[in-house]
Amino acid sequence: MSEITAKILTKVIKKRPSNSHKGNYGRILLIGGNENYGGAIIMAAEAALNSGAGLISVATHPVNLNALHARNPEVMFIDWRDRNLLNLITKMDVIVCGPGLGTNSFAHQMMLTLCQNVSSNQTLVLDANALDLIAQDSKLIPTSAGLIVLTPHQMEWQRLSQIRIPYQTDSANLSALKKIFPTQNVILVLKSNRTHVYTSTNEIFVNTSGNPGMATGGMGDTLAGIIGGFTAQFGGTLDPVLAAIYLHSLAGDKIAETDYVVRPTKISAILPQLMNHYANKG
Ligand SMILES: NC(=O)C1=CN([C@@H]2O[C@H](COP(=O)(O)OP(=O)(O)OC[C@H]3O[C@@H](n4cnc5c(N)ncnc54)[C@H](O)[C@@H]3O)[C@@H](O)[C@H]2O)[C@@H](O)CC1
Ligand SMILES: Nc1ncnc2c1ncn2[C@@H]1O[C@H](COP(=O)(O)OP(=O)(O)O)[C@@H](O)[C@H]1O
Ligand SMILES: [Mg+2]
């Protein structure tokens, strides 16, 4: 098992060439946010924006439109019942699905549409309710994405893997991952106070940063957005995922130097400065 350290940030975060534009930094679509959990997808989108994705769209319940645009006018919106969503899905580099999605029949249909239309040049980040839906119906397990990143917390992983939290050992987690996703290129980000990362090629990593001030609703939604932002601009491979995990908890540790509680939106707020620092170091 390897530790994730600050070295991953200088390796992954590059200075931007002058001759570049938004199309070079990835198109990302985030799907989620029902009538009750709009904040989840708004926080994920803000994290994708502040971590540097080139073009960001959100497919959500229309009740969330005003809040989304009032907070981040840079982000594009599509009503998640709009038929054009299918077309948009096929054009994306990265799709993040799940924060605040819910688990009703509409959410189920959304997951089915997504998993039937994703292709091998795309990265799929599945979080929160997307994982709960897969746990309920194995027909929703995508087979054709280039990379699938799963970001469950321990309870979501319990539902998906059937391994109760005290029994979630590295070997049990790896074998469950390979049983559920036998042929896919998958990274499992199993979130806890010491997040472990597992790959379908048997690698295991542990994140040693982060703090209990981060135990605040929306913290995982923010991580999903950063993973989306990093894979959109730095590519759908392992290193950008590890860098996103490390940056998220590094930001949490910086905020915890002065703050008892770490607000997820404060993490997103300091990402651009932190990224600038590591881009100049590398
Ligand atoms: N502002 C918002 O709109 C927010 C919406 N959220 C959404 O709410 C929905 C339900 O997600 P939840 O995760 O709250 O509900 P879950 O029912 O999936 O899990 C939460 C419970 O799992 C247990 N648990 C055990 N180990 C844990 C661990 N290591 N980390 C976290 N929980 C652990 C805790 O008792 C916790 O109350 C999702 O769609 C999620 O995206 C949350 O992200 C919170 C913020
Ligand atoms: N005690 C802690 N120490 C370090 N990190 C923590 C701690 N508690 C929570 N976190 C981090 O916060 C995030 C919580 O994710 P999640 O439970 O999905 O939040 P939400 O669904 O509310 O957005 C994870 O990245 C987890 O590692
Ligand atoms: Mg979560």
From TrEMBL:
Its EC number is 4.2.1.136. Catalyzes the dehydration of the S-form of NAD(P)HX at the expense of ADP, which is converted to AMP. Together with NAD(P)HX epimerase, which catalyzes the epimerization of the S- and R-forms, the enzyme allows the repair of both epimers of NAD(P)HX, a damaged form of NAD(P)H that is a result of enzymatic or heat-dependent hydration. It comes from Lactobacillus melliventris. This is ADP-dependent (S)-NAD(P)H-hydrate dehydratase. Homotetramer. Keywords: ATP-binding, Lyase, NAD, NADP, Nucleotide-binding. Pfam families: Carb_kinase (PF01256). InterPro entries: Carbohydrate_kinase_pred_CS, CARKD, Ribokinase-like. CDD domains: YXKO-related. Gene3D superfamilies: 3.40.1190.20. Its cofactor is Mg(2+).
